[in-house]
User: Fold this.
Amino acid sequence: MTIAITGATGQLGRLVIAGLAAKGKADSVVALARSPEKAADLGVAVRTADYDKPETLAPALAGIDRLLLISGSEIGKRTPQHQAVIEAAKAAGVNHIVYTSLLKADVSPLSLAEEHRQTEAMITASGLAYTVLRNGWYTENYTGSIPGALQAGAFVGSAGDGRIASATRADYAEAAVAVLTGTGHAGKTYELAGDTAYTLTDLAAEISKQTGKTIPFQNLPAEEYAKILVSVGLPEGFAAALASFDADAAKGALFHDSKDLSTLIGHPTTPLSEAVAAVLA
Assistant:
């Protein structure tokens, strides 16, 4: 069985390929990348695949049995890009497509959700066997702000008391490996979330505990939080989007009590304390 991974040079793609290699599958893996030279260190076969150049996709998928379609990073362009991959997969005779979607994509208020809803519908309509991995928030989306919080003396955001059931990229990658190498997943949609939810107040308390410094969580209106993100160098549109995700988190958009993720990977998801320690290390 040959397995192809789109977005192979991204952070999630690299972890999935490493996980497949650890299971002795390296010889059966094909990394699909827009810039093949960036995938030279992955230790697997590499093929050129550019979402924006559909003519590269069918040849890249020739002979592939299972395809992991990692959602593209270009928000606003993902629906046509994913459509091109799905059409190429069908033309190339791919047997099974696995897609990394968004937690509760069918009802999520996040602005990210619509492209995922559209992609899920296209995959269902394709007639291909499929599995949808509705990935929740990456813990790294928040722990990546720890250095800035330590410098500022506070962890800022707009999520209020919203509970966040995140998991690490490594957890989600492990779930993808389990589905790609396992059986019984066709036609399934998994809601993937961390086992233990937390608030940003909890995160700030964990940072304080591990550093010995008092780092409070400061909840801000989304507009004010967006201005802070712009002040540290983020583009205005991206800053506004991040602030809106936090505002939606305050209303429960990033919470789910499903144990699909820990069930798939066969062990509890990475605790928040470990994720914080990894950044501080």
